[in-house]
# Entry
Amino acid sequence: MPSPAQTEAVRPHPVQYSRQGRVGVIAVDYPPVNAIGHGVRSGLVEALESGLADDGADALLIVCAGRSFMAGADIREFGKPSAPPTLPEVVARLDDATKPVIAAIHGTALGGGLEVALACHVRVALKSAKLGLPEVKLGLLPGAGGTQRLPRLIGAARALDMILSGDPVGAEEALALGLVDAVEDGTSPLEAGLRAAERLLADGRLPQPVSARADRLTGTDPALFTAKRAELAKRQPHLFSPHRIVDAVEAAVTLPFADGAARERELFLACMDSPQRAGLIHAFFAEREVAKVPGLPADTATRDVRKVGVVGAGTMGGGIAMCFANAGIPVVLLDSAREGLDRGIAAIRANYEATARKGRLTAEQAEERMASIHPTLSYADLADSDLVVEAAFESMEVKRAIFRTLDETCKPGAILATNTSTLDVDAIAAATGRPQDVLGMHFFSPANVMRLLEVVRGARTSDTVLATAMGLARRIGKVGVAVGVCHGFVGNRILHQRGRESMALVEEGASPEQVDRVLTGFGFPLGHFAMTDLAGIDVGWRIREERRKAGDPEAEAPDWLDTLAERGRHGQKTAAGVYRYEPGSRTPIPDPEVAAAIGEDRRRRGITPRPVTDEEIRERCLYAMVNEAAKILEEGIAARPVDIDAIWLHGYGFPSWRGGLLFWANREGLGRIAETVQRYHRDIGGPQWRPSALLLQCAATGRPIGC
Ligand code: 3H9
# Structure
């Protein structure tokens, strides 16, 4: 077996120079996405020098192998000392080139990749290409001239929008904006680039580098920057890099190119040093890491899923059906009653029509998706489905009956999944004669929007079935995270802790709006009670009623939230819940009726309210979550901290700039968290505050959790 050094020696250099006629070709080949690491940076400079020195080359062409043009700087190098040449140095060399340089773009030209292309004299893109500067999503700003060159090509206002959103544009739009000079279809990037070179050589002129252009900047209204700053202060008050992006683009307008570029560098380095950058990059890798399930080999056989059944046409079932239809997978949607089925189909149609009205789907696409959802009242129509997702009422009795029927009806090898959010997947699987084919696929509401999918592995779920569900998650654009069976699985079990503490804090004297203010101040998009209103108070109330009726000894006695549900205050959908809502508005407004219900509840329980500090709310809500997460790891319900981070990032709006629940906990200090948990265990008691052994151990040894 070769040593690592030998392997390194035989690996071809990621950038090669060759010549095709009068064109010097600089070919980048660094799988999987041609990220611009040190080897690519130095290779680009060397190849450029070879091309400039090559008397036979009158023009140079940068082209990439594999599925994409360069997808940006190599994120794995961030936070480590950067070896020269830096990317700004590479693009400066391109800018100074004495021969015309062309970039031929396919796949995605993102971040530093697009910045390389922007420093070329000409850009040609394949029709399917996408171009963007997504640095903001990593807590950064484009740091290799992107904030200076993009406004020079497409104007400051449009550039600001593109850089602040981080979203790429398609090739056709890029052409209309002036970001690329030509779009080609049905050819390879090399051919498209060579054709562009021919045109350029026939013309015989060396085009002006983008850095020397200023025509699109003249007349930029300075009010643009004031307005953007005000908008950001309102919409993204927590984020660091968007504000620096406005500063950098403003510098493009107000300063000469070299000074603007120096200002961009300064601002880029400030973003690089910010803890938000580390958090967002952790979140980026977390999303990809969770796809690799420990103990499940990457080459595990999977089953084909060409047709899916969904049982239950309620809000959840309808949303799940849309997820598959959106990915081009035909769906049979079953409900037990005609009325429910018609209502479900009408809701899906309304949803697609609203999306079409917003311009995010064409009317034809909306119709195509509707046509791929086949409503039925008969289980026989599920017989040839490769996967059936049950999304019926949250009752063990109901679900077991459905699974018995599915077992009788579905073809051998069909995967049977339950969307239960709380019930025991093994008990549901035991209702069938094929527990190896049963698992949980726990979607989050609204299912067609939320990216998280908890893939719940039962005691007898086979590797093939788990691998198929994980692959399918990716196919339908979800972040699938494998978890084990327990009440509430990972996400809701942790949420339950935050919910219980939020309720206890209100009982003791806080108001729902104080609790929510602390949570939104931390960075959650919604506080606990606003989220309860969004999800619907009746959902939790029904689950609690079910547990009470079943005589569950751990079921809580009815509380003020149950009182609200009984009064028909079911949340946003009834314009009244923990808050009240003006018609057509989602803004929560505190309601004296709710304060009175809370007061009555306190009196009934003999509680004299006390002032509760914001700090206590923060600690009790967040540290209880960390303690529970550590117990989940101890029990093996989640395999790694990164799984819990991804679940909270994609299912519950945990602020991505904090990296994830456990990434944040490590930064907050496990010693401090463990000490506080122990204090609450002494002062408040209860199993929820029993400190996790793993948490105590990490705190004692100073190790981050999970390492
Ligand atoms: C930047 O450019 C800063 C500059 O302005 C200034 C510098 C001075 N680096 O997502 P996938 C890996 S900031 C390293 O599953 P897809 C990824 O982890 C950068 N690795 O594929 C995964 O690895 P693994 C700005 C990267 O087809 C594998 O590639 N650029 C990078 O679904 C496949 O990725 C960005 O933010 C990278 N830059 O999507 C672009 N990118 O197989 C970030 C990917 O081990 N990347 N990997 O799990 C993306 O958005 C998507 O990966 C992309 C492909 C759309 C390219």
Q: What stands out?
A: Residues 614-634 form the longest helix (21 residues). The pocket of (S)-3-Hydroxyhexanoyl-CoA is lined by residues 32-33, 35, 71-76, 87, 108, 110-112, 115, 134-135, 138, 140, 142-144, 146, 288 (CB under 6 Å).
